[in-house]
Design goal:
single chain; 306 residues; mainly alpha; two-stranded antiparallel ribbon; two-stranded antiparallel sheet; globular; Lipoprotein
Length: 306
């Protein structure tokens, strides 16, 4: 079943950030950086082929890295900091393209850290998020002093999550208004890839069937992300991401997903009775296929954080 992407981390976790931005060609910068996106593209650009509403709807179906982190914890595997990106690498990300991608990566890392209650290392990731978010002009939505105070006390984790959700929702609205969907797209992609990368590392250790099933379900998400990334593919950086995402899609080619619809359930939400369709996904995936998928995800993740 596809799960809604939710905000969290010790300031984030899976991200629903979308606005609008078609693919402008980015300026090629000097040095070894192979990505670039003009800072002006963070503010406005040409009309979208996809509407804001369509982008917002499809992104709602992207699986949350926090859900993945919860499954990882349930598998019984120990927390491993070595598989996460390092906040000190932020200084190497000298284009807006790389910063937005790695804002997503560090956000997913923080979701993983938060799930395991590792509050001793939360602050360094919060500071990394702060630097990256400010560099792409969205840092104004976070009260980092309050977040830092909450992050250092495990008793405040619920409050930390609540504030994080509120902050990212405000950021989402702002990005929509400012026509900056390209930034949102990169953050979402970075978070999603990092969540799968962490899960893939655990699968290699445990062969956990529930995690394997959840990664298998992501086959549908590839198509969603490719639709949106292709929307900006006139920019060579986005075109590169599309090419690499296509390699992951190829690894998923033989995976089969069937959906079983159960009886609709009635639930109360905010005082209103609503009907929810119960769905169960069945995934057919071999060990060879999962190995190929994890390999391609790791390749793209290494490309993002390099």
């Amino acid at each position: 079943m596809l799960k809604k992407l939710l905000y969290t981390t010790a300031i984030l976790s899976g991200i629903v950030l979308f606005s609008a931005c078609s693919g402008n060609s980015g300026k090629k910068q000097s040095g070894s950086d192979e990505f670039s996106i003009a800072d002006s593209a963070l503010v406005s650009d040409a009309p979208l082929e996809l509407s804001e509403e369509i982008i917002g709807d499809v992104i709602q179906n992207i699986s949350s890295p926090v859900e993945m982190a919860a499954l990882i914890k349930q598998s019984g595997v120990d927390f491993s900091q070595k598989i996460l990106n390092k906040p000190e690498k932020i200084k190497d990300y000298n284009t807006s393209f790389k910063r937005a991608l790695n804002l997503g990566v560090l956000s997913a890392d923080l979701g993983y850290i938060n799930t395991f209650d590792k509050n001793t290392i939360v602050v360094s990731y919060l500071l990394g998020i702060k630097e990256l978010s400010e560099s792409i002009k969205v840092g104004q939505f976070f009260d980092f002093n309050s977040l830092k105070e909450l992050a250092t006390n495990s008793n405040n984790l619920d409050s930390l999550m609540e504030i994080s959700v509120s902050s990212f929702n405000k950021m989402d609205s702002y990005l929509r208004e400012q026509k900056r969907s390209n930034v949102s797209t990169l953050i979402v992609t970075g978070a999603w890839i990092e969540g799968l990368y962490i899960a893939g590392n655990v699968i290699q250790q445990t062969k956990d069937s529930e995690l394997i099933n959840r990664i298998g379900e992501q086959k549908d998400i590839i198509d969603i992300l490719l639709i949106i990334l292709n929307n900006y593919s006139k920019d060579p950086n986005f075109a590169e991401m599309v090419t690499r995402m296509e390699q992951i899609k190829q690894a998923y080619a033989g995976v089969k997903i069937t959906t079983e619809f159960g009886e609709p359930k009635r639930i109360e939400k905010n005082g209103t009775l609503i009907i929810v369709q119960d769905e169960i996904s069945h995934v057919e995936i071999s060990q060879e296929q999962i190995d190929a998928i994890v390999k391609e995800i790791s390749s793209l993740r290494d490309f993002i954080v390099s």
